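Subject: Protein record for review, amino acid sequence with backbone structure tokens
Why sent: The fold of this protein is of interest and is recorded here as tokens.
Notation: Tokens come from a learned vocabulary of local backbone shapes, not from coordinates.
Attached in line: The record itself begins immediately under this heading.
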Amino acid sequence: MQKIRVRFAPSPTGSLHIGGVRTALYNYLLAKKLGGTFIVRIEDTDQSRFVPGAEEYIFNSLRWLGLEEDESPLKGGPFAPYRQSERMSIYSAHVDLLLNKGLAYYAFDSTEDLDAARAAQLDGSWQYNAATRHEMRNSLSMSVSEVETLLANGTPYVVRLKVPKNEEIRFHDEVRSWVMVHSSTLDDKVLLKSDGMPTYHLANVVDDHLMEISHVIRGEEWLPSAPTHVLLYRAFGWEATMPQFAHLPLLLKPVGDGKLSKRDGEALGFPVFPLSWMDESRNVEIPGFREKGYLPEALLNFLAFLGWNPGTEQELFSMDELVQAFSLERIGKSGTRFDIQKANWFNHHYLQQKSDDWFKEGIEDVLGLPVPAETLSKWVALVKERCTFPNDVYEMISNLTHFNGEVDQILLKEKWHADASAGLEVFLGSIDSIGSWTAVEIKLAFTTAVEGAGFKSGKLLLPLRIAITGKGAGPDLMLFMELVGRNECAIRLRNALRRFPELI
């Protein structure tokens, strides 16, 4: 039976886009579903784009989400090292193998040579391929002695893959079924750059083979590169053990056309990074999902549905349930829109599952005092159901407890009717006689007092809410009055009865 080994292979060139997180999640789910190994490999061969701190950010993001890898630069493993910059001798040896087999070649073309070739093709379709390579400065168009002289003199060069001239490349994709591409549409991709570093195409194929990767699960943007990778597997003689491909559908903008980009989040007002990221070029810190108050379990549940569905009506999945339900066969081909409102829906659900103690520190910070367990439970029950993010809980409590008597004038003029002052004056007079200051007793006392004086209690509830909270809507009023206390309620009522009639 085939060993299941998958890899998430980010480049440390900046923040981790949420699309990359989804790729990591799908790799993780497949590995756990099939009893396999989840590997994190750092693809850092493009040193010109390397960003200090990016690798640490990647691992911090995975840790926050609970996507624990089995092998990585941090954990080691049987195929270490797991940073490509530490595997240079491996790539050099494999380039030499292709050169010796005549399946790759040296190219000495300068930037000016390439620009001139492109300019000569008026329709802009020029490619470095079987039709043009003999017109360029490379080891296929030059004599052996010329090539040896250029190499001996240290002339800059790259190594290119020699793509077959007239061949159909066919491979199976777990998401898209069979994919067929003619070699005439491909260019001779650079495998080794002039700085001696391998390109993604070479390094990822060599590493995937040597690390015994069974499935390559990656974004759709890599689909055009897959035929080149298939040719490399053939060139090395590895086609029989080539991994299964699965190219994931694009994450699309919430509105309009195009792929969700790193800048779209700022423009549209939602995060696209798991954790906050400092954009050094603009000296701006961009908050991530964590800083915006999203819970990791909510984000994972949301991301799982961006391209995959379980084939049932179930939407809420624990990680264990996702592992059991996940399969590559249920990943769709079409791009999926990034609906932040759906993410909020998931977050609201998972916030409701949090224990009272989970909110304890934040609530005590707002109130400025220790909160006994029974009181804590009542505060949480008062506001949690109305909240999507943890900060909503704390802000709602803060707004309620720090009400300074200021009320929206329009609300007051609309809702503070003629009976309000007289009816609430009656209730204020009964407050001190309420024996047990609980929500049940407060409501009973209110109803008894105002209806005994000839008022309809239902008509006075909204004015009472405005007097106590300053709002026209909100959480359970009687429970809030219990929590805020008898004296505070009396003070707020007196202030309202003194000030509000003058404002309408």
Notes: The longest helix spans residues 486-503.
